[in-house]
Amino acid sequence: MAYIGASAAHQVLRGSYGQAKCVRSARVARQRACPRATAASNGHFDSTERHDCPAPSHSEARKAYFDELTINWQQLGEIVDPRYLPEEHETWNTLFDRATKLHYGGFAAPEFLECLDAVNYRAYAGVPSHKETSEMLYRDAGWQLAPVEGSISGRRFQTLLSQKHMPTTMYVRPREELDFTPMPDCFHELVGHAPIVLNPEMRMLHEAFGQALVRSNKKHERIAIFAVFFALCEAGLIRNRKTGKAQAIGASVLTGNAELLHCVTATDKHRRFSIPDVLASASLNEGGFKPVYFVGDSVSAAVESCLEFLDDPARFVAETSKVSGNASDRE
Question: Which DSSP string do the residues of 214-281 spell out, in sequence order?
C-alpha cells in the first residue's frame, strides 16, 4: 500500500491534524537556516543564487511545494489544486493511457470500471483537479479526498478512512519511475483508490476497515486488519460471473501494469478469497509480485466476508500472526 513508511516530518503527522503546526515550525526553522528551502517549498529555485546549503533537486523542490498545499488543507480544510508542470501532465497522461488500455481490455473488474467512468478523468487534459474530484465524491458518495504529505502511517490511513476521507498525495512521479515508484503518487491514489468509493458496497467496506482499526487496541488484530485490507483493496481480484475470469479491483495492481498483467494471468497463484486463508498465507510485502492473489466470488461475497471479520476480528486471529511483510509493523 502506498502509505507505509515515513520520514521524520511525516511521523510528526501521525497524530491529529493540529500537529501540522509542528511540521510548519520545523520547516520555518529550516528555511531560516537555508534560504534555498524557501524557494524549494514554492516549487522554484534560482541556481544563480549562492547559499551555504545543498541545492534541492527538482523532485525535492516539487515535493516541498506539494507539502505546502497539503498543510493548507490540514489547517484550513480547503483543497488547493497544484500548478502542475507540463511534464507532470505528460507523465499522468502516459500512466493513465497505459493503465486504462489494460483496464478496459479485460483486466479490471466491471465494478471498478463503472467507478472510473463516473469520475471522468478523461475530461481533463492532464492531472485531474483534486478539488473537483473531492467535491464530486462528496456529492455522490459522502466521501472526500484528504491531501497528505507522501507516506503516512497505516494507523492514520485507516483513521482517515473511518472519517470517510480518502488519503491522496499530490505528487506526480518522475518519468524515470513510470513503471515503479517507491514514493506514493497521485496516480495510484486518484485512479486506484478514490473512484472505488462510488461503489456502495466498497465504500461501506472502506469505512468499516477504518472503524475496526480505530476500535482495536491489540497489535496482532491490527496487523490482521491490514492484511485483509491489503489482500482485497490493494491486491484483490474478483471473479467475473459472466466469463469466469478473475479481474483486478485492488488499487495497487490496478495502477501497476506489470503486476496487473501478472496477477490476472498467473492463475496458478490465485486463491479463493476467504478470511482464514488470507490470515494464514497473506503477505504485506509491498515490493514485487505477491506469492498469492485472492479472488472473491463477487464484490458482495468479498465484502460480506470482510464485514463479518471486522465485526469481531478476535474470532479469527490467533496471538501469533502468520502475516509477514514490510508493512506488518506499519503502526
Answer: HH---HHHHHHHHHHHIIIIIT-EEE-TTT--EEE--HHHHT-HHHHHHHHH-GGGEEE--HHHHHHH
